[in-house]
Amino acid sequence: MLGVCYYPEHWGIERVEEDFGRMKELGIEYVRIGEFAWSRIEPERGKFNWDWLDKTLELAEKMGLKIVLGTPTATPPKWLVDEHPEILPVDKDGRVKNFGSRRHYCFSSSVYREEVKRIVTIIAKRYGKHPAVVGWQTDNEYGCHDTVRCYCPRCKKAFQKWLERKYEGDIEKLNKAWGTVFWSQEYRSFEEIELPNLTPADPNPSHLLDYYRFASDQVMEFNGLQVEIIREYSPGRFITHNFMSGFTDFDHYKLSKDLDFASWDNYPLGHTLVFLKMRGETKNPFDRVGHPDIISFSHDLYRGAGRGRFWVMEQQAGPVNWAPYNLWPARGAVRLWTWQAFAHGAEVVSYFRWRQVPFAQEQMHSGLLAPDSAPSFGYHEVKQVFEELKNIDINEPVKSEVALVFDYETAWVFSIQPHGEGVNYLDLVFRFYSALRGLGLNVDIVPPGSSLEGYRMVVVPSLAIVKEEEALETFKRYSGPLIFGPRSGSKTETFQIPPEMPPGLLKEIIPVEVKRVESLGTGNVEVLLWDGKKYPVTIWREDVDPTIAEVVARFEDGPGAIFRKENVYYLAFWPDREFLLDLFEKLMKETGHVVRRLPEGVRIQKRGDIVFAFNFTPEEIEIEIPEGSQMILGDHKLPPYSLAIWKETGR
Amino acid sequence: MLGVCYYPEHWGIERVEEDFGRMKELGIEYVRIGEFAWSRIEPERGKFNWDWLDKTLELAEKMGLKIVLGTPTATPPKWLVDEHPEILPVDKDGRVKNFGSRRHYCFSSSVYREEVKRIVTIIAKRYGKHPAVVGWQTDNEYGCHDTVRCYCPRCKKAFQKWLERKYEGDIEKLNKAWGTVFWSQEYRSFEEIELPNLTPADPNPSHLLDYYRFASDQVMEFNGLQVEIIREYSPGRFITHNFMSGFTDFDHYKLSKDLDFASWDNYPLGHTLVFLKMRGETKNPFDRVGHPDIISFSHDLYRGAGRGRFWVMEQQAGPVNWAPYNLWPARGAVRLWTWQAFAHGAEVVSYFRWRQVPFAQEQMHSGLLAPDSAPSFGYHEVKQVFEELKNIDINEPVKSEVALVFDYETAWVFSIQPHGEGVNYLDLVFRFYSALRGLGLNVDIVPPGSSLEGYRMVVVPSLAIVKEEEALETFKRYSGPLIFGPRSGSKTETFQIPPEMPPGLLKEIIPVEVKRVESLGTGNVEVLLWDGKKYPVTIWREDVDPTIAEVVARFEDGPGAIFRKENVYYLAFWPDREFLLDLFEKLMKETGHVVRRLPEGVRIQKRGDIVFAFNFTPEEIEIEIPEGSQMILGDHKLPPYSLAIWKETGR
Amino acid sequence: MLGVCYYPEHWGIERVEEDFGRMKELGIEYVRIGEFAWSRIEPERGKFNWDWLDKTLELAEKMGLKIVLGTPTATPPKWLVDEHPEILPVDKDGRVKNFGSRRHYCFSSSVYREEVKRIVTIIAKRYGKHPAVVGWQTDNEYGCHDTVRCYCPRCKKAFQKWLERKYEGDIEKLNKAWGTVFWSQEYRSFEEIELPNLTPADPNPSHLLDYYRFASDQVMEFNGLQVEIIREYSPGRFITHNFMSGFTDFDHYKLSKDLDFASWDNYPLGHTLVFLKMRGETKNPFDRVGHPDIISFSHDLYRGAGRGRFWVMEQQAGPVNWAPYNLWPARGAVRLWTWQAFAHGAEVVSYFRWRQVPFAQEQMHSGLLAPDSAPSFGYHEVKQVFEELKNIDINEPVKSEVALVFDYETAWVFSIQPHGEGVNYLDLVFRFYSALRGLGLNVDIVPPGSSLEGYRMVVVPSLAIVKEEEALETFKRYSGPLIFGPRSGSKTETFQIPPEMPPGLLKEIIPVEVKRVESLGTGNVEVLLWDGKKYPVTIWREDVDPTIAEVVARFEDGPGAIFRKENVYYLAFWPDREFLLDLFEKLMKETGHVVRRLPEGVRIQKRGDIVFAFNFTPEEIEIEIPEGSQMILGDHKLPPYSLAIWKETGR
Fold first, then answer.
1. Is A597 a member of any domain?
2. Which residue of C has its CA nearest to A539?
3. Beta-galactosidase C-terminal domain spans which residues (chains A, B, C) (predicted)?
4. Which of A190, B173, B315, B553 could potentially form a cystine with B167 if both were Cys, beta carbons 3.0 to 4.6 Å apart?
């Protein structure tokens, strides 16, 4: 189903009726409103202006549109900031961040939390049972503009309390956990502990990791406050939050537990550009459409976070304003993205935004309509999707052959001590994910500790910290091919090298011992020999004692590179794409599932027995469709930036 | 005529007489002194040391040298700063900038303004009618070292007042003008408004634009204070200020209105290097002489700002100290630059500085003399110019075939929301300007709203904000070819997209509608087809509905690229040099003026019926001189880094 | 002899005995302990925990290990910082640096100095005469993490006092010395002087130079305090400090005067990477072994600073954690480095660290043992060295053919006004040093003013400030080839251009005059013609009047490039490697000493009549060994990363 993000406060109530009418024509069912509108709702403390919002909801009800109401807590108004400047966040350099854009608040501020409770209660009470309101979005893009980690005095106090709870009031536990004997960092009480910024040398990594956890928890608590209130006053409505792509500053799985489903904001062009830049790549063949796997990674991640359910809450529908440069999308891209989201299980794709706003920060961010209300290119593609949707039932759940274990703490561990310039968890994960997708496999992205039952194969690009109670048991129970990447099991819960040496607890299932590791410079290319082929190894390599594991493959200079015990594999290096394609192809074959490599830029995704094929290239590409399949959309010739859908009758 | 910058306070009065004598021999008529000398004039509050300055002026009078007296306000002395630390500026990051170099003051500080009035009054009273004093320079290089925009509490208050005046005390006007409904940025009073720095996300662009205008106005007011006092106490003397090259942080046209003429400081090697770096160019064929068009752009700009009159107040005469690297100029370059300045209408070329100072920050900045008083290479070239000048009368005014409309607000609009990495107003302007110069055309650089009468062609690289009363009327009245570049008319006065869509008010004369725009990455090269040729398009492209305009040319993939209605053209892209050369050649021809491309590095400039040809290359280049011309200097073979001058008798 | 760095406080006393036993087996004689252990010694003010340290020393004594005791002053504990937050340092941007890593103190803090005196006295009294304690290390790596130069209010006061002493209480002397008349920077009292940070434009270079000297002196005083106390309470024990590589923020010669010998911390892989990066080089053929000359430069420098005596206090023995990327060393490298150190005169090579610590900041920094106590690769190589050492007597002093004058003030002068992007003193020095080493020459690195007697040749890559009493006299007395590089003699003691023009006082021995200088961009390659060959000149060039000196060589475009008067040479440019090899070869030959170029990556070093040959390449290399030599280790075929040692009987 289709939705749209809309800001009645920008246009005046007089235009809402017409806009709602046009939305209906376009097939829009859901309209998200209200996030960012605090100053319109409560222009000064205690004085409320409900008129515009009352009328908007009334019209929505009348016209049969379903409203997703956003809480306006991402933008506390000026009067509130002036009353309580202590809610402003402080950055890593110690600078207070000021009013004048958005997200100018500290998550742990108790003052701000009270204000949030107050405004959310008032709004939830007023509209919680309104027939037009079908659900809620809390706040907006938690953490955007680097706002998860605040370094204000309030955070310091809250962090001390958090530590006191974690270490059960015993400072010696913390001293031991952090190894503070090193460099005379020992503390005598929790009150002595500082925030880990502005130190002459690197802060203690255990200190940082606990601080990152604390900061992540603050977001969770902040969101939890809102959820609790909304649940009370708005029974039967869903609650979600719109996450971002490639953002790991808080644990999205944990936060999602409080939500009915996850949502995310899909801006393929900018996300692809930013991701490739992070990797140091200078060419971008997908610059007008986005890399299919960078996009679908988030679909699969948030489907996992949402326990099978997710929305695209904001879908790019034209050129945006925030990337290093801002191309307009290729013709067909908006339709392609929409179908791709549905193929990966999205329940709703909601475009951002209805109409380009001619003022303020995002005036160069396009909408379905231009500022003068003329339909943009994207508009017509949405229309086409709407028509196509009428004839297709895609409500089957996504079932995946492969699970990929993705872990926020591992992202933090890698970022705290990368040990080398190119060492980035997201890059490593993407290599695994993209190779699986290049073989046409459906992938579930799951947190450590999830049940792995029913998957043909499980890949763990890296899991730095293995917690017995959570992950290890699920790994032990799993009998299919289970592949661990480098640095797995390399740290204890408090960022120490495990006493039993890496891979720590994983030794139970893959009995090897990592003796030392190295990060490689751009000039260092090592060579892996496997199955008669040579593969380049860059970025990372480990020196591993196989102990009783089998050495499946070696580096050209001798030492083992791939290790195996029964169904479990350990890769002692940063794998390249070609190797992963070969490895996964072979392992899948061994499970009895023959896969084939898809052409560059072509992707397959299955939802029940419906198969989708996407062409993210500017060329027509011919694909093979199993005989007897029943075509639903398109055919075996995929036009540029287009797709085909069929039903596999033989499955 | 020739001048020099001199610092008697550095050398002691005993050396001044000898120095003045050598200046006379070299043909120097004007000597600028005094700027930066506050601590020598007033070593402590209220105690004055006039002796050295009295004697310097006395000697100047005796020896027939004309003094340009600088006000010393760029360098408040330590005692003043210690009395009033609140005059120190605050940078964007919130850091107070300290005493110890120069420009350590905030333009809006009322305390500092009082001090400025006091010292300028005292100096102007004392020397205003001195026979040696022929003119004044206010302060020095306003804005150097990024000092126009200050973020101190005084500026915040002053900005609030400025806004209150602009929006007539009506905060709702401001809220509407800035679109503060977006992201709950609404204000209830002017006292609530912050300075636009240290926000988590980008500040509101309207907020920024008004702040940039405010900051520009502060410079204007600061200068105005000084001008008013000097006018009172120094009747009949001129007042000027020495501007910089490529600097757009305040509106030089507006400030110049208070001056008798504009001056600027010409450092060709560094300016060329900095400009090419900004453009991302790595090669610099002009590294020992400077790019002729980068130099003459400022000549033409400040001739415009000075309403036909300008000086070069500081002319590089050897290697300097401040560029990323500092070559010495090619032999001949100092002479070449001097003649180039005269060709573009400079009244005086004043070298920086008389003698290299062996101490403090600029000790590696050369002068006409080395620290031991030995003549530098530049010295001999100045001598040559002096001899050559004796036989040449170049006092005719510069008349130009083409006007280029240059606008400071457009520079601010581009910098506030560039929308892409290479999108820079100065780069765009330079493309237009340099193509015109490459065709041998004289160019006037004028502000929007200037009369365009008498020009064969008018180019507007971009004019983001079109103000009806100013610019639009002059465009309407103009009947020659009038070419607008991209983003023209793209914003309202308060940085909104015009309700009628871009190009906004320009639609009256060029009825097209810009539907969407994109900025291009370095890998994106689009193709323009025009007149049987293909041209690359980089950086920027627009999607334009021609409405009733003629589509003159299209992009290779279909949409219109150049639009025309009668005499008015709109270019929906960032044009490349080759295209602009072809376009301007063709349009000039249509006006009956045949132009020819000059060899790379050769430039022609006319002053009355005197024609100058300059060779900025290390090779001899032969040029064509119209038959019957009367040679004044050189001949048709231009030696490396040299020139020829002739009188066109047939004109 | 061999040593190791050990942290009993990390492991608990119960493991010390076993560790000491294994050290003995490995041939370790010296164990450095205690630096960083303040919080373990004094967990709260006045409460001491001596037990672990008492027992450690007792065990050492019992087992015959010699202890080097570190003072723990690099890491003031939290309780001290909380009592006296004013000891925290302030960085150039004005930010207070916080507790949580190390080196969080200001060198000039009188409060901290009192604390340092207190703790050092207590420790020195307790252990000063302990039989196991043979020596002391003060603090740890002074200046690491950019901590020499602090910008706190205490430093401001102390700097004012320092200036008052230097300028004998006469502010006018300072005004003259700094040239404060420039830009009205004049001071009326020492109390007015600020620290040279946060100025809008560059601070006065004389101000900076004096501030750098002041900061260097603070380190000296801080160290002096400790030395004085240790001398009193620990008679007969040596005192040293572990310096870093390529670090010039304080004068290591001056500080070393208070020490018995110098030590340094040798991390070849990281140092090579950082040095090449500084030079803009992208290839690193020595990435797994380090550049031999980058390593031995520090050996030779600290042998000079230590007046013939030095240790390697920390020797990399495996992969480390702090470089841009962290490779493991090639097999053989640890042995190679150890022998290289001995060849250059090291008395002890002490590995860092005994066992990799599994927690805190340096957990990815390897040791001789892995965290689980398994021997690392390095361990076995140390074992090999220990065996080899048994048969070799290398106690002869290092005698060098060439002296290279290295000067910390010149490093400061270059960094304060580099005048161009690639202009770096260490790069210049390295060019001279590495060319000498490439010819198989032993090099002594000496401060200006050292006796130059007995050297066949003396090179001075640059000596910006020539002080009559110190350096000039030694140059005058020296009669061998004496080669000065560019910028020599270019500044007075207070950073002014000398009144007699550069090379200032050096004119007495090399009568030339530098008229002007230029720094070259990457695109500017000038050409030197010498001895029938052409050499590229980059980075720097000078325009020199030979006066009465001989012009030995010229630039291709005419002016002189190499000048000579009798035995003294002046190079008016930044020389390239090939030229320096040719020059030094020729000049050495003229002294009667024939040298030959060594293969790339091969180095020779002599200690008495023992000759060492090192192969830093991955290939076997054959070398020539003089007939009649007596082989001690290896032969003329040097295996990869290996060495040979022989006795020259004919010498």
1. no
2. C325
3. 601-648
4. B173
CB contact under 8 A, C370 and A205: no
Structure tokens at B312: 């070069």
User: Which candidate in B156, B181, B544 is best for mutational testing of the A interface (most A CBs within 10 A)?
Assistant: B181
Structure tokens at C385: 């060295």
Here the contacts of B621-628 (C-beta below 8 Å, separation 24 or greater) are: B623/B599, B626/B650
C419: chain B residues, CB-CB within 8 Å: 321, 325-326, 364
Q: Other CB atoms closer than 10 Å to residue A340's CB: what's the count?
A: 26
In this complex, which of A100, A287, A372 lies closest to B501 when CB atoms are compared?
A372
Which residue(s) pair with C562 in the sheet?
C553, C571
Q: How many CB pairs under 8 A join A and B?
A: 171
Please report residues of A whose CB lies closer than 8 A to that of C9.
181
Pick the closest to residue A301 from A482, A481, A450 (CA basis). A450
Assign residue B618 the CATH number of its domain.
2.60.40.1180
Token duo for residue C539? 């980075």
The answer to whether residues B71 and B128 belong to one domain is: yes
Tell me the H-state helices in C192-278: 205-233, 252-256, 268-278
Final residue before a domain boundary, out of B259, B286, B318 = B259
**B285-298 per-position pLDDT tens digit:** 999 999 999 999 99
Q: Are A302 and A442 contained in the same domain?
A: no
| CA Rg value for chain A | 25
Q: Are B311 and B350 in contact (CB under 8 A)?
A: yes
User: Which phi-psi region, left, alpha or beta, contains residue C647 (left: φ > 0; alpha: ψ -120 to 50)?
Assistant: beta
Give me the domain span that covers residue A412.
402-590
Residues A132, A228: one domain?
Answer: yes
The SS3 call for residue A316 is strand
What is the predicted pLDDT for the residue at A377? 86
The number of domains in chain B is 3
How far C15 CA sits from the closest chain A CA (Å)? 15
User: Of B548, B564, B590, which closes a domain?
Assistant: B590
**Does A413 lie in the same domain as A379?**
no
pLDDT in tens, C183-211: 999 999 999 999 999 999 999 999 999 99
Residue A406 has pLDDT above 90, yes or no: yes
Annotated binding-site positions of B for Zn(2+): 106, 150, 152, 155
- Distance (Å, rounded) from C-alpha A565 to C-alpha A506? 11
Q: Which of B179, B198, B501 sits opposite A370 (nearest CB)?
A: B501
Determine contact, residues C643/C625, Cβ cutoff 8 Å: no
Residue C2 DSSP code: E
Mutate to test the interface with A, among B171, B172, B183 (most CBs of A within 10 A): B183
Q: Do B39 and C181 touch (CB under 8 A)?
A: yes
pTM score > 0.90 for this model? yes
Q: Which residue of B has its CA nearest to A39?
A: B184
Does residue B492 share a domain with residue B607? no
CA distance A56 to C151: 58
Distance of residue B629 Cα from the nearest chain C Cα, in angstroms: 37
H or E, element range at C438: helix C425-438
Query: How far, in Å, CA of A299 to CA of A310, rounded?
Result: 8
Q: Which residues of C are known binding-site members?
A: 102, 106, 140, 150, 152, 155, 322
Angle, vertex CA C208, rays to CA C202 and CA C211, nearest 5: 145
Confidence at A651, pLDDT banded by 50, 70, 90: very low
Q: Dmax of chain C from CA atoms? A: 75
Compute how many other C-beta atoms are within 10 angstroms of the C-beta atom of residue C392: 14
- Residues in C touching A543 (Cβ below 8 Å): 328
Write the single-letter amino acid at B515: K
Query: Which of B72, B65, B73, B71 has its CA nearest to residue B133?
Result: B65
Helices (H), A145-197: 153-166, 171-178
Two tokens, residue A1? 């189903």
For the annotated catalytic residues of B, the residue numbers are: 141, 314
